[in-house]
Amino acid sequence: MTKILLAEKLNECISRWRTAGIDVIGPVKKHNSSQFESVQSAAELDLGLVLTDRTIKDLFFPRTEPMVRYQIKKHAIETEEFLPPDQKRIIFGVRPCDASGLAIDDPLFGWDYKDEYWFNRRNESVMITIACTKSDEFCMCTSLKLAPDSSKGSDILLRPLADEKGWLIEELSDRGKEAFSSIADLLIDDSAPLAPLAEVPVKFNLEASVAWLKNPENFDSHFWKEISARCIGCGSCTFLCPTCHCFDIQDEGDIYKGIRRKNWDSCSFALFTMHTSGHNPRVTQSSRWRQRIMHKFNYFPGKFDMNSCSGCGRCTRQCPVDMGITETLQEISKLSR
User: Fold this and answer.
1) How many Å separate Cα 176 from the centre of its chain?
2) Mind listing the UniProt keywords for this protein, alphabetically (predicted)?
3) Are the CB atoms for 310 and 146 separated by under 8 Å?
4) What parts of the chain have a pLDDT lower than 70?
C-alpha cells in the first residue's frame, strides 16, 4: 500500500508547515510571469504550469547578495560576514529538471572550496518535486538522459493521480520523510491509477554531439560563427538556466568602508572576459557561444562526470531570437553523422 496526498488536503499541509516556522515556497504566476515565491495558502500556487519562467536557482544562488561588510580604520580593518539565516524551507511543486539542476551544481559549489552560501540554503530546504504529465516543444530532458519523473535532487517525488485529485508519494531522503511526518495524518493509505507521464521526444544525439565537441579540430570550426549569428548576447539563457553559476564579486562603497557583493554574471557578455589591459580572449559572440556549449558538455563533465544541463529548455523558450542549446546540439548531431 502506498501513501497518497489529496489535493484538497494541501492547504492544511501548508498551514501546518508554516505554523512550525517553515517557509513554504511554490510556483506563483504574477503579471504574466511565473517564479517561486513564499506562499501562505494552496490557492496561491499554480501547479498547472509546464515550467516556471524563472528557475529555483534564485532561491539558492540569489542574483545579488552581500558577502561581507568592511570598514578600514587607523590601525585595523573591521569585517562583518553575511551568511544566509537558518530558515527551514519547503519548496513545493518543483519540476524534475529544476531539481536536477541543483544536484548538478552541488559538486561545483563544493569542489575545492565549499560555498557556505549555497550549502546553507541547500541544507535548510526540502525539495518536493511533481512529475511532469505535460510538456511543450522546448522540453528536452530525455535528450539529456533524464525523464519527466527523474528523482535527482529531490527529497520527495509526487506522482499525479489519473483523476487529478492528488499525488502518490515517493519519499527519497530523510529530510523528505521528516517534512511529511508532521502531516502523516493527512495522508491516506491507498493505491490509485497514475496519470501518464509527459511524452518528451529525444531531439538530438547526445553521445555523438559530445564526441564532436571533444574533437580539438572542431574548436575553430566555422560552425560556431554560423550557429551564433543571431545571438545578441543578452544573457537571458544563462540567467534563466537552472545550472549556470557564473558570478562576479564587486565592492560597493568608498575608500574607507563598503560591502562586498556577489552578483550573477554571464559568459554571453563581452565584459565577462575583458582584461584590465583591454585584451579580450573572447572578442566575438561566436566564441562566447562556443564557450557556453563547450562548458556544459565538455569541460564540466570532464571535471564532474555529468553534463551541466538538465534539459529544461528555458534557453530556447525565453530567447528573444529563438536560439538555444537544442538547436545547437541538433546541428552538431548532423555534423557527427
Assistant:
1) 19
2) Iron, Iron-sulfur, Metal-binding
3) yes
4) 1
The helix-helix angle for 96-109 and 116-123 (nearest 10°) equals: 140
Sequence ranges of the domains in the chain: 3-189, 206-336
From start to end of 84-218, where are the E strands? 89-94, 125-130, 156-160, 166-171, 188-190
Q: Please name the residue that has the C-alpha cell 517534512.
A: 179
* Other CB atoms within 10 A of residue 184 CB: 9
Alpha-carbon span 328 to 257, nearest angstrom: 46
Residue of 51, 328, 73 whose CA lies nearest to 213: 328
Our CA angle for 84, 126, 112, nearest 5°, is 55
Spatial CA neighbour of 246 closest among 287, 291, 284, 303: 291
Q: Is residue 327 classed as helix, strand or coil in its secondary structure? A: helix
DSSP letter assigned to residue 295: I
> Angle at which helices 285-294 and 325-335 pack, to 10 degrees?
80
Read off the pLDDT of residues 246-273 as tens digits, 9 standing for 90 and up.
999 999 998 899 999 999 999 999 999 9
CA–CA distance, 228 with 22 (Å, rounded to integer): 45
Please, are residues 330 and 321 in contact by the beta-carbon 8 Å criterion?
A: no
- The CA-atom distances, in angstroms, between 183 and each of 14, 59, 204 are 9, 24, 43
Q: What is the DSSP letter of 93?
A: E
Phi/psi region, residue 157 (left: phi>0; alpha: psi -120 to 50; beta: rest), is beta
Task: List 90's β-bridge partners, or say none.
Answer: 24, 126
Distance CA 237, CA 26 (A): 22
CA distance 210 to 182: 45
Residues 126-154 have pLDDT tens digits of 999 999 999 999 999 999 999 999 999 99
Q: Where are the beta strands (DSSP E) in 254-323?
A: 257-264
